[in-house]
Amino acid sequence: MNVQGLAAIVTGGASGLGEATARKLASEGAKVAIFDMNVDAAQKVADEIGGIAVECNVSDAASAEAAFASAREAHGPARVVVSCAGIAPASKIVGRNGAHDLDLFSKVINVNLVGTFNMTRLACADMLELDPVNGEERGVVVNTASIAFADGQIGQAAYAASKGGVVSLTLPVAREMAPKGIRVMTIAPGIMATPMLLGMPEEVQDALNKSVPCGRMGKPEEYADLVNHIVNNAYLSGEVIRMDGALRMAPK
């Protein structure tokens, strides 16, 4: 699917993987709506790419439905929806302060898994109302997991569980939507050079780079390039692509 002139939504588009994706899709001619809780940062990116910024809590039904309505009013129903919004707090099951906080676990699941499902269900509902753009495709949904779904480290129980859920979501949704012309894919990034990691001390960054067989962290632009390829490759659906430089994470 060529995105030229088509509407796209990117969650978490104010920074990191989402920002790179929003910029890439806009450079390919898409009309991009950036969904983010940090609406000021989202607006800055939107202004630079000719898109719009919409405040959205991806894990809240009403907020998400209102955000989709705003994007639909501005650009029309989205043909491409990419979920990059997520959080990654670390906590051991039993730490210095006792058992893992249950509210924290629930928050991670709500943002990363429920939020991804929320975006997926609304995206598919809108896409089903559209005519195929090329005789077969109505739209593409790209979700973001993490290699932690398979290589979860100590302290990543909540994060790994949430991303494992995103992985497990991929095939059943893709199977349901494929006959209707909607493709569903998931990318599982490894260590990526996002603002959070680039803000760490240089020695920490060096250690992270050395842990990757390819010798460096991935670039957000490389994630964005993969999203763009998925959108353009009409036979990709129902799969999880690890993007990790051959990294398999150690226990800690």
Automatic annotation (TrEMBL):
InterPro entries: NAD(P)-bd_dom_sf, Sc_DH/Rdtase_CS, SDR_fam
UniProtKB keywords: Oxidoreductase
Sections of the chain in a coiled coil: none
Keyword match Oxidoreductase: yes
Keyword Oxidoreductase: yes
Gene3D superfamilies found in the cross-reference section: NAD(P)-binding Rossmann-like Domain
Single annotated GO MF: oxidoreductase activity
Membership in a protein family: Belongs to the short-chain dehydrogenases/reductases (SDR) family.
Protein name: 3-hydroxyacyl-CoA dehydrogenase
Organism: Terasakiella brassicae
Lineage: Bacteria, Pseudomonadati, Pseudomonadota, Alphaproteobacteria, Rhodospirillales
